[in-house]
Amino acid sequence: MSKSGEADKSLYERIGEEPFRRIVHAFYEGVAEDAELRALYPEEDLGPAEERLALFLIQYWGGPSTYSQKRGHPRLRMRHAGFHIDAAARDLWLKHMRAAVDGAGLQEADRAELWAYLEYAAGFMVNAA
């Protein structure tokens, strides 16, 4: 396949589902060990949050629409409005996500594309000073 054909594919088409699941799992392992960030997650079991984030990222990046089928429109800001997300929380989230993304073994272009979105989305969730 030509390089331009590969570039026309969605991130999901290029890397598949498993890397998203590995990234999200590694991220939540970090969350579980970080008392400050863990406090933002009300569920005792992080498993449901892990599944929701995995399904969201898979759908966002061109995979199956399972997230929307199960939960409706993502409405990220609305779903996070009840949580105090300040710059420090954003930075902790990004710290653990960065480690997860960097450890996933993605090609540099794929890693950069994913990371640019994650930084943007994390900033978009900030709702407190």
Question: How would you characterize the overall build of this protein?
Answer:
GO terms for molecular function: heme binding; metal ion binding; oxygen binding; oxygen carrier activity. Keywords: Heme, Iron, Metal-binding, Transport. The protein is mainly α and 129 residues long. 70% of the residues lie in helices and 0% in strands.
Number of helices: 9
Please give the alpha-carbon distance between the first and last residues: 48 Å
> Low-confidence runs (pLDDT<50, min 5 residues)?
none
Q: Which structural class do the helices and strands define?
A: mainly alpha
Could you report the average pLDDT, rounded to the nearest whole number?
93
What's the SSE pattern? HHHHHHHHH
- Main beta-sheet strand count, sense and barrel state: none
Tertiary shape: globular
Number of strands: 0
Family: Belongs to the truncated hemoglobin family. Group II subfamily.
Keywords: Heme, Iron, Metal-binding, Transport
GO molecular function: heme binding; metal ion binding; oxygen binding; oxygen carrier activity
Pfam families: Bac_globin
Helices and strands in order, then pairings?
Blueprint lengths: L2 H5 L3 H5 L1 H17 L1 H4 L8 H14 L5 H6 L4 H5 L6 H16 L5 H18 L4
Helix pairs in contact: 3-5, 3-8, 8-9
Considering the chains and any ligands shown, give keywords for the structure:
heme, mainly alpha, 129 residues, Hemoglobin_trunc, heme binding, GlbO/GLB3-like, single chain
How would you summarize this macromolecular structure in one to three sentences?
The chain has 129 residues and is mainly α. It has helices spanning 3-7, 11-15, 17-33, 35-38, 47-60, 66-71, 76-80, 87-102, 108-125.
